[in-house]
Structure formats: structure tokens, C-alpha cells
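Journal club side-thread
Mid-discussion, someone asked how the predicted structure for our own chain would compare to the paper's figures. Pasting it here so we can look after the session.
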Amino acid sequence: MEKSNLKTFFIKLIAITFSIIIIINVIFNLIFGDKIEKLNNILSLDKSKFRSDLKNKIRNEIKNGLKKENILNQEDKVLLYKLYKKIEKEFAELDNK
């Protein structure tokens, strides 16, 4: 009877251990897997295939943006205009020196 209880204990212990490992693995992949993949993409900028994919993605976004009537919303337009004016003023000051 002792051996039966001991055998049941070890089976349950192994099942619980595997369950915990699987749960930790799933949680890790759901939370950190995506972020690690993005970090790997950033770190692989020196690889020509990734650069080519990134260039194509940027080109597609530009094409999609040009198809829209308004590329920027009103707030972004105001911010960019103010930035443009400030840069223009700094260049004018540079010419005066």
C-alpha cells in the first residue's frame, strides 16, 4: 500500500511539474515573445533581407498615405507647421551671422 501511495504521489508530482512548465512557457510566449521578436528585428537592421522588407513596407505605407485625401490630421499639421517655422527661423539666423 505504501508503494501505491508513493507511486501516485510521484505521478501527481510529475504531472504538476509539467503543467507548471507548460503554463510558464505559454505566459512567457504571450507576454515576452512578441517583444523579443520586435527587438530581434531592430537588432537585425544590418541584414539586407530585413532592410529590403523594411524598405518595401515603408514604400507601401507611403503609397497608401498618398491615396488618402488627408495624410495628416489637423493637430499634426499644426505641429509640423510650427516646427517648420522654427527651423526656418533658425536657418535665417544662421544666414545673418
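Post-session note: The mean pLDDT is 84.
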